[in-house]
């Protein structure tokens, strides 16, 4: 988005190499004037995601700049504008987190330790895959979830040899989105919580020619799981069932509140907005459309 904004305003699009002072000036104007394709302001969540995505883009290879757009004093004037725009968006009623609070760090730990998500059962596995995909790709609509096909994702490697999952096809809807701009879910080698491994395991346990991506699990003993390569029925999870996944997880894991599916969207934004701090419980790669190179 920043590169598009720079080009539209006749400015140098190579912002990655700008001195800190010049970058601050550019960001100050960008934060104040950026609008979506309809000419309207973004939601608070999307607005925060822009800055977080830019920060990650600058800090990660190949740029590897030792800066933090959120905390460094050199960006004080840009951040003052950013905060004032957030206040304006809140007054406009665009604060999604007011109705859909992000999952707290303590509740994320409860989910991780509860066994609700895991490789130990068909139900735990499909719950984990759903949670991972929602957290990484921040897909909100129930219809989008229900319309996912079994080969919706492809596993690729980046230039450093690290594996990641991404969408194979453009998103459906009025404005189909390039899969390359829909985000990536990176693997976590050696970690039992690796989301790419969970996704591959889940896909390997579906019946032949599965009718949908999300299928209801079979009830199986550990011995049956070892002997039977198929863990799921040929029964797709419906729109309403998928739409209440997070409330059911909240109850089963005894979380502090009953979260909605949309809370995972705001949780994603919260995790993305902590790139200058310690690594969060779940590692989330910034959606490509929020990064500075798009």
From TrEMBL:
Keywords: Isopeptide bond, Phosphoprotein, Ubl conjugation. Residues 114-250 form the ZMYM2-like/QRICH1 C-terminal domain. The keyword Ubl conjugation applies. It comes from the Eukaryota. PANTHER family: DUF3504 DOMAIN-CONTAINING PROTEIN (PTHR21446), POTASSIUM CHANNEL TETRAMERIZATION DOMAIN CONTAINING 1 (PTHR21446:SF12). This is ZMYM2-like/QRICH1 C-terminal domain-containing protein. The lineage of its organism: Eukaryota, Metazoa, Chordata, Craniata, Vertebrata.
């Amino acid at each position: 988005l920043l590169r598009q904004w720079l080009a539209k305003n006749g400015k140098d699009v190579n912002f990655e190499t700008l001195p800190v002072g010049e970058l601050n000036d550019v960001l100050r104007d960008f934060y104040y004037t950026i609008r979506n394709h309809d000419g309207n302001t973004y939601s608070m969540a999307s607005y925060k995601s822009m800055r977080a995505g830019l920060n990650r883009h600058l800090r990660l290879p190949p740029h590897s700049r030792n800066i933090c757009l959120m905390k460094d004093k050199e960006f004080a004037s840009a951040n003052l504008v950013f905060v004032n725009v957030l206040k304006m968006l809140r007054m406009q009623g665009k604060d999604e987190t007011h109705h859909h609070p992000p999952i707290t760090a303590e509740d994320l730990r409860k989910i991780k330790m509860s066994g609700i998500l895991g490789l130990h059962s068909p139900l735990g596995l499909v719950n984990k895959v759903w949670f991972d995909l929602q957290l990484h790709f921040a897909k909100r609509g129930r219809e989008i979830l229900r319309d996912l096909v079994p080969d919706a994702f492809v596993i690729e490697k980046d230039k450093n040899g690290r594996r990641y999952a991404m969408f194979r096809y453009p998103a459906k809807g009025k404005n189909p989105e390039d899969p390359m701009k829909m985000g990536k879910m990176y693997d976590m080698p050696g970690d039992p919580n690796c989301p790419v491994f969970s996704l591959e395991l889940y896909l390997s346990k579906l019946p032949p020619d599965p009718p949908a991506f999300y299928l209801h699990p079979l009830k199986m003993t550990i011995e049956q799981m070892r002997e039977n390569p198929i863990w799921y029925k040929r029964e797709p999870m419906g729109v309403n069932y998928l739409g209440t996944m997070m409330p059911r997880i909240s109850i089963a894991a005894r979380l502090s509140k009953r979260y909605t599916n949309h809370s995972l969207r705001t949780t994603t934004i919260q995790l993305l907005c902590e790139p200058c701090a310690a690594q969060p419980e779940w590692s989330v790669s910034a959606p490509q459309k929020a990064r500075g190179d798009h």
